[in-house]
Design goal:
Blueprint (H helix, E strand, L loop, with lengths): L4 H14 L3 H16 L1 E2 L9 H5 L12 E2 L2 E2 L5 H18 L3 E3 L5 H24 L10 H11 L2 E6 L16 H4 E6 L10 H11 L3 E5 L9 H10 L3 E5 L4 H5 L15 E5 L10 E5 L1 H7 L2 H4 L6 H14 L2 H23 L13 E5 L7 H10 L2 E2 L1 E3 L7 H4 L2 E5 L1 H6 L3 H17 L1 E4 L5 E7 L2 H16 L11
Parallel strand pairs: 1-12, 5-6, 5-7, 7-8, 8-9
Antiparallel strand pairs: 2-3, 4-10, 9-10, 11-14, 13-14, 15-16
Helix pairs in contact: 1-2, 4-13, 5-11, 8-9, 14-18, 18-19
The chain binds D-serine.
Length: about 475
Amino acid sequence: MSLNAESTAFRSALEVIRAVEPRVADAIGAELADQRESLKLIASENYASPATLLAMGNWFSDKYAEGTIGRRFYAGCQNVDTVEALAAEHAKELFGAAHAYVQPHSGIDANLVAFWAILADRVESPALKKAQVRQVNDLTEADWFALRRELGNQRMLGMSLDAGGHLTHGFRPNISGKMFDQRSYGTDPATGLIDYDKVAEAAREFKPLILVAGYSAYPRKVNFRIMREIADSVGATFMVDMAHFAGLVAGKVFTGDFDPVPHAHIVTTTTHKSLRGPRGGMVLCGPELADQVDRGCPMVLGGPLPHVMAAKAVALAEARRPDFAGYAQRIVDNAQALAEGLLRRGAKLVTGGTDNHLVLIDVSGYGLTGRQAEQALLDSGIVTNRNAVPQDPNGAWYTSGIRIGTPALTTRGLGAGEMDTTAELMHTVLSQTTPGANADGTPSKAKYVLDPALAETVSKQASDLLAGFPLYPSVDLG
Ligand code: DSN
């Protein structure tokens, strides 16, 4: 039997790896098998194409390339220049951005680059000008300490964690919470939606240097035109972290007021979520911030990963193809079908539905914590993650929510009918799970009781559902 190119490529790669450390080859094969078998509803995950995956396994991994295209601190970067320029060009065309910086290794890194660029533009550059020097190294000791105090005391207004904001938007477990004085805007307790008047009020009171929009667990669209007006009204820089919904922007599902690129001063993203590229980050901005953004490495980033930039170029080229828009629309259609299926069966959803790729189930409606629900679903072959809901009484560890998303299952080809079946499976598990107790009889927020036979039946149903939608059908590892 003659094998197709993708099967040959992955089989050969595993054979070469197996000759050195067979356990790594086995783990790679096992990961594909696990991903093929699981009903993956993690809102931030996806399945990159074989071309994207293969672009990462090569000699670019060996190359140091600190600096920017054509201005490197190492010799011999001509081929890295080629792939970095391709990735940046595709990103600019795809998103309609003036400048794209594709070196960040992750979303956190992309945000750090953006924060530094804003601080440098708004604080460092004026301070250097005032001191009449060109660079930080030329400052006197006293001016340097004065500058450090200024840089260390800046204000950021972002979405609160329990309303769906992200740790990197000024929260203490992340460096952003130590670099910035942070204040949060939440959501309206009655509707679960962002109340723009409240954001404007907080901005007027707090006078942030940076207004951040973007989320990892808010199931609705954000009006970036209004957010920009708020930022402008207080002289703030408007930053959008579109990591979760970049694929919906790329696929032109989010346009006009809901496309962040024309409205924000600076936009950050990951490349591996709804955008379906390799794990990594990216920054988009206008010409004003471009020079500062390009200083990302070595300012806050380690050496760029040229093999990942090559894969970003491949994935961004894929996202520019006409069929990506259909994929992006199906992500949202599927999320809405999933939400409707859950609502019809009695589930409680934050905001009562979704406009994007994710759904947040308030599992207190089933008498469970997020931790209990997450584990019970996992026992039943359904992979999700627990997440806080607004004003969550169970905090960020146990939580009261389960976040689910459709980018991965949509890539696999599942549609509205399968989303309804998925809703049925989830509802069956959640409604049949009860909270467990600790050894001393007190209620536990982690333990739960679920009939193993039911979990097995649901696992089998999930696997039957997936059987009709093979993952990487072109890849046969033998
Ligand atoms: N960890 C990502 C998510 O799951 O949303 C965000 O960083």
